[in-house]
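Hi everyone,

Forwarding the result from last night's run.
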Amino acid sequence: MNEQSLLDHALALGFANAALIDTGDITFIPSFRPLCQENLCGKYGVNYSCPPDCGTVEEMRQRILRWPRALVMQTMWDIEDPMDEGQTKPAKARHNRLTRELMDWAGEPGLMVGASGCGLCTPCALAEGAPCRFPALQYSCMSAYCVFVKDLAEKCGMEYDCGPGVVAFFSMYCF
């Protein structure tokens, strides 16, 4: 895969920024996992892509490290209150759709790490006690992987805190 065309296509799709990184350079902070238990997103224990059902911290880390490279993508949104789900939820969904679109375009196997937990099914099949309907498309968020996103953004030359009224979301395509 031509990495420059991957970067160019990410920007053409509408990502504000895109950068490549070796997955071995990604910082994982296992102590982030308890933050998922606070369940601010409402997906803890009710979504296969989120803790505790997505896998252990080490299993998640190994899923990323299985791939040597990652394309990190960022979108930025005019959102006054980052806690306003009415604004953030559609923005994250759009961000994740763009990430999947890029992966489909690339046509290469890889791992999607999303801006939020998987939102392919509402509700997740886990809530019904059924198996995942789309295991090949399911994705977990940066938090579930315990990725230190602020550090990742800095390593990729991206702003993590974009200032008042602007919220940035990040995803990765590991390949």
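Residues 85-106 form the longest helix (22 residues).

Cheers,
N.
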